[in-house]
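Example record

One chain of 346 residues, shown exactly as stored in the release files.
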Amino acid sequence: MKLALFLALAVAQWQTLSVPSKASFRGLSAVDDNIVWVSGTEATVLRTIDAGKSWNILKVPKAEGLDFRGIRAFDDATAVLMSSGPAEKGQARVYRTADAGKTWSLVLEEKTKGAFFDCIAFWDAKHGILVGDPVDGHFMVYTTADGGKTWQRVAPERLPAALPNEGAFAASNSCLAVEGAGNAWFATGGGAVARVFRSTNLGQSWFVFNTPVQPHNGSTGIFSLVFQGEFHGMAVGGDYQQPDALFPNPLNANDGGRAWQRLGPPQGRFLSSIAVAPGVGRMPGTVHAAGPSGIYSLSSTGQWVQQSDLNVNVIAFPSAKSGWAAGPKGLIARWNIESPAGVQKP
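Predicted C-alpha cells for this chain:
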C-alpha cells in the first residue's frame, strides 16, 4: 500500500479544469473528493458534486460586485459565504444557504467604518468563527453556535490590543485555523512584528505571541497557517507586492503556537496558502503550500519541492487521494492520485 501510494504521488499532476467563470478565486471548501465549493470576485460562487466534471453557478441575490473571499461548506447543500471589502461600502457580509445555493440568507452585515472581514472557519457544523481587521485598536471576532444562522461579536477587550498598522490578510481564507473542539489561531502582518493570536475556548478569549517575522511594510506578514493537532503548527507568508523577496517560509511551532521558529533558511517566494494532505495509515500528512509561483510540497529537510507552476491563491486537501487549487482568471485545478495521466496546463 505504501509503495503504491508513493508511485502514484510520483506521477500524479495538477490538472486544470474547465469552469464557467473567469473570476479570481480565493474561497475554496473541499467537503470531500467530489463535493467542492469555490468563491471569488464579482459575487461568483461555483459548486461541483462530481469531482469537477461539471459546475453549478450559484447566484446570491443583491450581492453584485462583492468579492467572496471565504467559503465553508458542510455538504452538497449547506455553506456559509463571506465577502471581503470596506464595511462602509456594504462589502463586509456573510450569507448562508441550506438548499445548494437556490436561496441565500444574509446572516451578518457589519457597517462599522474600517471593518474588513478576513477569514471564516468552522470547528464543526454548528460552531464557527470569523476574524476581521482591527477597529478602534482591536481585531473584530465573531462566533456562531448554530451553523452560521446567527453571529455574535466577541467583546473587543477579550482580545489583546492590535499593533499600529497591524492587520490580517484575506488572501486565501486561511489566516485563521481551527482545531479540535475549540482551539483557534489567526496570524497577522503589517505591524512591527507579525503575530499569532490563540484561543482555546471557541474564540471567547485570546492570547497573542510574536513570531520572528518583522514586516517592513503593510503588505508583509503571515498569510496562512495550519495546525496538525493542538500543538504542531506551520505558517507561510511574505510580501504580496514583492513575491520574490526573501521570507522565512515556513515557520514552525510545536507548543500550540506560543513560539515560532524558522524551518531552514529564508526561501525567496511569497506563499499565500498552506494545507496538509492527510496521511494514509501511519504515514504522516504531507504539507503543501502555494502562491503566484506555483504549488509546492515540503520535503523532510524543510525545502519546498515544486509540483506545479500554476498561479494559485488557495489549496485544500480533503483526503490523501485528492487536492484542489484555485486562483486568478477562473483557475481551478485538481490533483488526483487515481488519475496520474492528467496533463498539467500552463
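Notes: The chain has one domain: 2-336.
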